[in-house]
């Protein structure tokens, strides 16, 4: 029987979640999805979600919190589609 899902049986890209604090003390999570680094505010209801394109192979401990803060500052907010 053919595979109807059309999806790959190999695992997707790295999805390690990192947590860090920005300059103002807000707690954020960061996850790498393909070439997009997606930030989500954890402890703030109005912090929103931001994303930026980065060239990373993995979001591991070699990526410093300072680098995450710089990318967060440069990342535009993701708006709601209507």
Walk me through what this model shows.
12% of the residues lie in helices and 28% in strands. It has 82 residues and is α+β, with helices and mostly antiparallel strands. It has one domain.
Give the count of helical stretches: 1
How many domains? The number is: 1
User: How do the strands line up in the largest sheet?
Assistant: 1-2-3-4
**SSE string, helices as H and strands as E:** EEEEH
How many β-strand runs?
Answer: 4
Distance between termini? 40 Å
Poorly predicted runs are: 1-14
Structural class: alpha+beta
Q: What's the overall geometry?
A: globular
Strand content: 25-35%
User: Tell me about the biggest sheet?
Assistant: 4 strands, antiparallel
Rg from C-alpha positions?
Answer: 15 Å
Mean pLDDT: 80
Helix content: 10-25%
